[in-house]
Automatic annotation (TrEMBL):
Residues 20-301 form the NADP-dependent oxidoreductase domain. Belongs to the aldo/keto reductase family. This is Prostaglandin-E(2) 9-reductase-like isoform X1. The gene is LOC110203692. Keywords: NADP. The active site is at residue 56. SUPFAM superfamilies: NAD(P)-linked oxidoreductase. Substrate binds at residue 118. GO terms for molecular function: oxidoreductase activity.
């Protein structure tokens, strides 16, 4: 599959999404200004897909970077594809549009290209993103995600967002939306953790069969933040098989991991706040993995999930108890 650096794929609503995006999540220890710098560098390098979220608490800085690159003539608004996410405390239908409007206000944009339900688990509404009870357990909320989805559809109809999708949904949760009575718009995508150690082949097959694009986050492994990730888990990018394939093509293991996803028909997010790596991560359009390479990388799958969200296992709609 010959791909150009501007390559986009068409989603089920007719809109297009760039196959490679910049992830903007950073641990709290990282200054918010880093997100602004990384976004500017990424746009200068050629990234046109920026993946953000209300949860990341850096929408203002990322928005400033996008607007700065529009103002200096590097890009137009139409060139940029921005993804925002509806956080778990806003699942009640009446809270969906206000949440999106807050994101638009933070970004100082008139619309965003894609708005997705960040996670199928619903938390108690309020100012706290993680509303804890006295036992330090997150307080859940009882919401029918089909009602949340209807409110998402209304945001699309209102022109506040071009496309709508989901994230961290398993097959059963996707089917619940797809089989909803009166469904107006199918989710265009499902954004999930996906890398050579968790290749999501069954979920990818299901999504493809329903014309839903799989978007890969943590495609290079993960940020390894101690609060979320087991520090003893193996590093994808240190895998010897990946290293050997990278050496053969005179590439980095990260470039091979990104290229692997693109050739599988997965839209891939690469997160880095380092200028050199941001540039390297974009240099994946001028080489191709062989069928043997692809098979070898497929063989690395261990169903290893870095982000298990184990602390939320008791919450209704926890997505990772199902096989996929």
């Amino acid at each position: 599959m010959a791909l150009s650096s501007s390559h986009r794929v068409t989603m089920n609503d007719g809109n297009t999404i760039p196959v490679l995006g910049l992830g903007t999540y950073a641990p709290r220890s990282v200054p918010k200004s880093e997100g602004e710098m990384a976004t500017k560098v990424a746009i200068e390098v050629g990234f046109r897909h920026i993946d953000g979220a209300f949860l990341y608490e850096n929408e203002k800085e990322v928005g400033q970077a996008i607007r700065a690159k529009i103002a200096d003539g590097t890009v137009t608004r139409k060139d940029i594809f921005y993804t925002g996410k509806l956080w778990n405390t806003y699942h009640r239908p009446e809270l969906v549009r206000p949440a999106l409007e807050e994101t638009l206000k933070n970004l100082q944009l008139d619309y965003i290209d894609l708005y997705i339900i960040h996670c199928p688990m619903s938390f108690k509404p309020g100012k706290d993103m993680f509303p804890f009870d006295e036992n330090q357990k997150v307080i859940s909320d009882s919401v029918d995600l089909r009602d949340t989805w209807e409110a998402m559809e209304k945001c699309k109809d209102a022109g506040l967002v071009k496309s709508i999708g989901v994230s961290n949904f398993n097959r059963r949760q996707l089917e619940m939306i797809l089989n909803k009575r009166g469904l107006k718009y199918k989710p265009v995508c499902n954004q999930v953790e996906c890398h050579p150690y968790l290749n999501q082949s069954k979920l990818l097959e299901f999504c493809k069969s329903n014309d839903i694009i799989l978007v890969a986050y943590s495609a290079l492994g993960t940020h390894r933040e101690a609060a979320w990730v087991d520090q003893n888990s193996p590093l994808v990018l240190e895998d010897p098989v990946l290293g050997a394939i990278a050496k053969k093509h005179n590439r980095t293991p990260a470039q091979v991991a990104i290229r692997y996803q693109i050739q599988r028909g997965v839209v891939v997010l690469a997160k880095s706040f380092t200028e050199k790596r941001i540039k390297e991560n974009f240099q994946v359009f001028d080489f191709q993995l062989t069928p043997e390479d692809m098979k070898a990388i497929d063989g690395l799958n261990k169903n290893l999930r870095y982000l298990t969200f184990n602390q939320f296992q008791d919450i209704p709609n926890y997505p990772f108890n199902d096989e996929y």
